[in-house]
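Translate sequence into structure tokens.
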Amino acid sequence: MRTDTEGRPSEARSRLLETATRLFYGEGIHAVGIDRIVNEAQVTRATLYRHFPGKEELVLAYLSGVDKAMRAPAEEAQAAGLPPAEAILAISRSIAEGIQSQGFRGCAFLNAAAEYPDPESPVRKAVIAHRQWFLDTITDLLAQIRHDGAEPAARHYVMLRDGAMAAGCLFDPELVSETFLHGVERLLEVYTATGDAAAAGG
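Result follows.
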């Protein structure tokens, strides 16, 4: 990573990444070419290639930034020492807020996965790594409530989240968020009472 003399990421790199993030998320990764990014970031191609050897590295940097942003609510909830159920609800509320934010067009990782189907692609691997972290995080929190059934319940939660992220850019985002949060509350209610992940769907 190129930095300025004080060790911070260079202004040009930050501008390139901000531009790529906006365009990749808003219009799709394959739909946006390097020339468009260079022009809108107001840098030269040579400058881009000094910071990112190719488009794939720029895509990976974009996803890394999204990953960091999506980890923040979970890290904040855990740092605050919230009980596990409250931590899951805090994470869920953050997801709901994102769904209702201006310009929302689904999960950046699910969008990227649709564009990079090759399981050997570094982009696809970055998507899988992020999703594994998210599943592990929810599983660990549920296991603090009760160990039995934590992973199936976490998979159930991730499916609720994925459905909400997909629906949030197609239907009324407020209604989608409300439905998602109600589903999470119901899952936690049943899981806390019985530890039965399957029952949470009833």
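Note: Confidence is low (pLDDT under 50) at residues 1-8, 196-202.
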